[in-house]
Description:
The chain has about 150 residues and is of the alpha/beta class. The protein is built from six helices and six strands. It has a single domain (about 5-145), classed as 3-Layer(aba) Sandwich (Rossmann fold).
Amino acid sequence: MRPNSTATVAEKREMSEGHSSVSMVVIDDNPLSLEFVSTALARPGLEIFTTTKPEDGLILIAIHHPQVVLSDVVMPGINGLDILQRVKQLDPAIDVVLMSAHETGAEGRKAIQQAADYLRKPIALSVLRERVGRLIDKHMAHARLA
């Protein structure tokens, strides 16, 4: 699957006209989760890039340098804990939110402490909008001040 952007043409035009914008990369091997998250969090000024492949997610992060990364923990190949570690090496200021339906061991719990947040699946719409929305709001406010 090719990485996708859910930003509309109008939102892209608005961003290119100098309006403050924030970008986010969402990585989950479940396409339905990607659709749920991108639909729930979509708003003007936010560009969301999604992919089902962790390797493509790292490419999207390197290209777009998002302010927020939302990643599943359990995925084939590169897992969410690896994504967290690589993002923090690239830029410690990027907020990484991990989500999982599975329990993590002691090593995973320790790594998750470096994340901006951790969400247990299934994620309630209100919880997703509140907790990830708070991070988006923080970055949008910062972008307006810059």
